[in-house]
């Protein structure tokens, strides 16, 4: 009895949240103006109408496992690895119908074996589900650390309307007590409804989507969970220093911030719109990460904004087609910049190589899905973890 009372008190006052945040995307991109011209579209449709300037191109030597390991190795220390006892891997572009990508990643990162490691799926909402589960786990076991990964390759197909909203990469979140970056507020608002806006039947390598419908549903869910969040918490828009969105393409987040600020004071609208511009900077240069997109946007805000200070409350809107959404919030901590481990992501993104539209199309077709045995030449892939091929349907991962 005493233990339960003590635990409940600890849980009430303990801060739990994102301690470190890492990101990886391959070193190749295609320019969106060039892609637009090749597809006989006005470049401003992609640059302004959709809000994307560059799109990550994923070579066959990278998949969700290697990208996740590359993101996580940027943040994990030897001590973190010792304290980790749970790895939650969120993806909607997994590489096996049975075995969890988390198991491969745990091996590549050299994690100990007395851990739990599994995969979760609910479209682009998966990483948020993982984060909330991780928070609950740390509440029960305050000395534990949890690695939450969101990794995906967004594929709609060449020459489809969804093509300019592709991309790919991975985010790695280390969740712990007394976090360096963001302490999560306990109360959040969520909604689930069976809706066919975006899905990928078994065996298909590209998503099926009702594009306009999915964008409208996203905004409807935003309205619903935002109203619910305000009722549950008593907090208002003016209590938030910035609002972050899942960004399948950055124009949709712009519509989101416009929707939330309709009727707000001009100074508040200006402040939140400015922060939104910081929050979409990296997403404009990478494209859709599916479940990692919201957290890439958080990273972008943390590195681009000069206004944020410790104690600021951030609002986060997570959306996964199918459909599920959550609006939650967290308080920035004094060492929030330190949680990015000194990596300059602007520089990393600026240092990528541009590939032609022809080369992008070639690499798009090269991604391994159904191969039984194939060797890949990884000598041009500078990433630390790569996919070297497949042998009898077993993916061959290595560190080089
Ligand atoms: N200059 C400036 N703007 C221009 C322009 C020009 N020359 N030409 C067109 N535009 C604007 C249009 O007016 C339009 O703006 P609004 O949305 O404000 O009306 C915008 O550019 C896009 O033009 P279209 O609507 O004609 O574009 P489209 O029909 O080719 O498709 C899309 C756009 C629906 C986003 C499509 O790319 C798509 O289906 N993408 C995938 C679906 C998606 O991302 N859905 C998001 C919600 S689902 C989700 O969030 C989960 C997930 O990650 C997938």
Task: Describe this protein's structure.
- With 400 residues, the protein is an alpha+beta fold.
- It folds into two domains: 241 residues, Peroxisomal Thiolase, Chain A, domain 1; 153 residues, Peroxisomal Thiolase, Chain A, domain 1, CATH 3.40.47.10.
- Helix content is 37%, strand content 24%.
- The chain has 13 helices and 18 strands.
- The strands form four sheets. Strands 1, 4, 5, 6, 7, 8, 9, 12, 13 and 14 form a ten-stranded mixed β-sheet that branches. Strands 3-2-15 form a three-stranded mixed β-sheet.
- β4, α6 and β5 form a beta-alpha-beta unit.
- α9 packs antiparallel against α10.
- It is globular.
- The site of acetoacetyl-coenzyme A has 29 residues, from α3 and α8.
- This is Hydroxymethylglutaryl-CoA synthase.
Mean pLDDT: 96
Q: Which structural class should the secondary elements be placed in?
A: alpha+beta
The total number of structural domains is 2
Q: Tell me the number of helical segments per DSSP (H or I, 4 or more residues long).
A: 13
Number of strands: 18
The CATH class name of the largest domain reads: Alpha Beta
CATH superfamily of the largest domain: Thiolase/Chalcone synthase
Radius of gyration computed on alpha carbons: 20 Å
Largest sheet: 10 strands, mixed
N-to-C CA distance: 52 Å
CATH topology name of the largest domain, in short, is Peroxisomal Thiolase, Chain A, domain 1
Strand content: 15-25%
CATH architecture of the largest domain: 3-Layer(aba) Sandwich
Ions, cofactors and other bound molecules: acetoacetyl-coenzyme A
Helix content: 25-40%
């Amino acid at each position: 009895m005493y233990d339960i009372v003590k635990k409940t008190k600890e849980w009430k006052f303990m801060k739990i949240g994102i301690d470190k945040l890492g990101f990886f995307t391959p070193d190749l991109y295609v320019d969106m103006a060039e892609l637009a011209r090749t597809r006989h579209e006005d470049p401003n449709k992609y640059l302004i109408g959709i809000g994307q300037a560059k799109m990550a191109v994923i070579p066959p030597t990278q998949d969700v496992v290697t990208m996740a390991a590359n993101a996580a190795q940027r943040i994990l220390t030897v001590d973190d690895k010792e304290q980790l006892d749970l790895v939650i891997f969120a993806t909607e572009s997994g590489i096996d119908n049975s075995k969890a990508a988390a198991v491969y990643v745990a091996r590549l990162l050299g994690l100990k074996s007395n851990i739990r490691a599994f995969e979760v799926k609910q479209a682009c909402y998966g990483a948020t589900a993982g984060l909330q589960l991780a928070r609950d786990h740390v509440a029960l076991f305050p000395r534990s650390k949890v690695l939450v990964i969101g990794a995906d390759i967004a594929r709609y197909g060449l020459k489809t309307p969804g093509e300019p909203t592709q991309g790919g990469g991975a985010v790695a979140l280390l969740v712990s007590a007394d976090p360096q970056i963001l302490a999560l507020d306990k109360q959040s608002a969520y909604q689930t409804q069976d809706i066919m806006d975006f899905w990928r039947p078994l065996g298909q390598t590209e998503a099926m989507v009702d594009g306009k419908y999915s964008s409208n549903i996203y905004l409807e869910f935003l309205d619903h969970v935002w109203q619910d969040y305000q009722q549950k918490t008593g907090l208002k828009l003016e209590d938030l220093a910035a609002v972050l969105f899942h960004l399948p393409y950055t124009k949709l987040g712009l519509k989101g911030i416009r929707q939330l600020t309709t009727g707000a004071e001009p100074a508040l609208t200006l402040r939140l719109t400015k922060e939104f511009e910081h929050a979409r900077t990296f997403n404009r240069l990478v494209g859709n990460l599916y479940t990692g997109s919201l957290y890439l946007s958080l990273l972008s805000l943390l590195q681009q904004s000069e206004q944020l200070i410790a104690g600021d409350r951030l609002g986060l809107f997570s959306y996964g087609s199918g459909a599920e959404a959550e609006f939650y919030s967290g308080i920035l901590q004094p060492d929030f910049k330190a949680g990015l481990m000194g990596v300059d992501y602007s520089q990393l993104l600026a240092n990528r190589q541009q590939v032609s539209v022809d080369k992008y199309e070639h690499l798009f077709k090269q991604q391994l899905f159904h191969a039984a045995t194939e060797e890949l030449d990884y000598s041009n892939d500078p990433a630390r973890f790569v996919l070297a091929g497949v042998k009898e349907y077993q993916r061959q991962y290595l560190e080089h």
